[in-house]
Amino acid sequence: MEWLIHGTRPIYESSWLSLELVDVELPDGRRFEQHVVRMARPVAAVVVVDDRDRVLLMWRHRHVTDTWGWEIPAGRIEEGESPAEAAVRETEEETGWRPGPLRPILVSQPSSGSVDSRHHLFRADGAEHVGPPTDITEADRIEWIPLDQVRTLIAEGKIVSGATLIGLLHTLSCPGR
Description:
Layout: E1 4-13, E2 17-25, E3 31-39, E4 43-49, E5 54-62, E6 67-71, E7 74-76, H1 83-95, E8 97-99, E9 102-108, E10 115-116, E11 119-125, E12 127-129, E13 141-146, H2 150-155, H3 162-173
Parallel strand pairs: 3-10, 4-11
Antiparallel strand pairs: 1-2, 2-3, 4-7, 5-6, 5-13, 8-12, 9-11
């Protein structure tokens, strides 16, 4: 059933995101204001798998949740850039590896109940090391982790990022695709 939107009121806007109060009515007639976050730009992310069935991951801290975890390379798609171009650029900047040819996996909205944040996920088979990461603020460590360890890392809470979980679980469930 579709919710009816009666109006939207902006609360905050920046070049990164906007926060709105949306006046919604449920199918049963109840009406209330819901907070909605809209990200200004979509995100591109890539699961890079090498010929030894390892995945390129970054160990990083997220100050918002005050947690450490493994993540795939990801970042905002810049003006005039395609999702695939952004995925390649972000991987190089964050890891120092240039991913091989990209294949689209899917587009997701990881928290669609309250956040509008479109994520374009890709898979790359192979990568070329092009030097050290140019963005040294992204990761504490960059490692090639065997795919057969990913389920354990998820179970241990060491992989919690939505885009990373979606990309890795898709890769595990659809090997070679």
